[in-house]
Amino acid sequence: MKGTQSVEDSNENTLKSTKKNLLSVDAKISNPDTLISVYNKDVKVLPFGCEMFEKTNFPIEWEITPPFDDSAQTKFQKSMNDIIDCFLKLNRIHKNYQLPEIKNYEYIPLNNRTENELQKSTHYSYRLPKMGNYEVFYLSYPINRPKNYGESDQFFLQVGNLLFYNKQTKDVKIITVFFWEEAYFFNWFRLFNINLDGSIRVTDFAFSEEDTKKTNDVLIKIKDNDIKITKLKLINNK
User: Fold this and answer.
1) For residue 37, what is the DSSP state?
2) I need a labelling partner for 175 at 20 to 30 A (CA). Which of 30, 66, 71, 115 fits?
3) Does residue 111 or residue 195 have the better pLDDT?
4) In Å, what is the CA distance from 206 to each residue of 4, 43, 203, 216, 226?
5) 23: phi > 0 → left, psi -120 to 50 → alpha, else beta; which?
6) Which residue has the higher pLDDT, 112 or 44?
């Protein structure tokens, strides 16, 4: 029992250290200029999201070295920590601007996960440049952690949605491009960047005590009323 308790204590300490690292939203950002344009209601120019995410060639999987000391981290984990800080800071700005009238909602999933907590929101955080025939909005919202949760529970702490609004039909298509999902010993993140050409890169990562893995990688392109989603092959960059 003593040995088992020691392992449990170690796991709990590891989890706390991991969360503290991920939640340091005021930590030094590698590229702070990335965030300058997004402090306003209207984003006039792209990119939007976190450019550092797009520019970092993550492998499919990499190890995390305890005790989560920066000096012991791999270059990929250091980059990932900075990128997550970047997104947490971006999503910390929760504005409530009124969306135009919406008649119909269509949720477009990127995989088989349930991600549509914000599907029918009437407000947005940022208005982005028009893509194809769509007015584009971004909305991020924190979700309260359940008061009582066990080791088998999974829940979202934050979700960020892109809303593609057809002004003529008043219909909106919604894609979740950011989330932070948590379980007792695991975290899942979906990260994104909207490039200068309007293409959207979205990648899912699974984060455990021992390693981080890519689990899904897609490219989204919008032309006229068409939203094309291409699943990219996971490449093991090193």
Assistant:
1) G
2) 30
3) 195
4) 26, 30, 10, 10, 30
5) alpha
6) 44
